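Worked example

This section walks through a single chain of length 199. The input is the sequence exactly as stored; nothing has been trimmed or padded.
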Amino acid sequence: MHRNCSPSLCFLLLIFAGCERHVIATPPAGSASSPQFNACSLITKEEVQAAQGSAVNEVKSSVNTEGAFRVSQCFYTAAESNKSVSLSVTTNNPDNPTKRSPKDFWRDTFDRSNAEGKKEKSESLRNEPRGTEEEEKSTPPKEIDGLGDEAYWTGNRVGGALYVLKRDAFIRISVGGSDNEETRINKSKTLAEKALSRL
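Given that input, the structure is written out below as tokens.
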């Protein structure tokens, strides 16, 4: 992700960076509203294998809580390690009831990020030649139509992630590999549709 992200979006990325801490050996099945909900119940390793074209050797689940939110993550380790996939689901933390919901956080993050990105891009276009590094860094999240309630792709030439809001929860999918951005987005959308159908 580029260095000029909004504070909310940077915080969101930090939440996901800490999600490997509590590993659950056998993922329990459940629903998004259940205290036992686990992201690994949303996408099978066979579906990841089909999308990535590489066998999945291991599926690891973890849970991280950050105040009002709980993040359940599933990491699918592919035989070709650069084709591994991560899925995160952010829901309310049942142990910390609050009026602030994941949907509120989503609005704050993506509405502000888009507004700031458009402002920075406008200023960059006035002051810099097209195609400069400054213009690339200020690119706001890309809206993806027809997926969940709202969806955005954030990324650059070397990586990215798809965020999808459904009701009062949102998912994040990141696929590895050397594909171009359009292919990574399409693979992420395919997996997101599977996850959303079970969320």
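What to look for: The first helix runs from residue 7 to 17.
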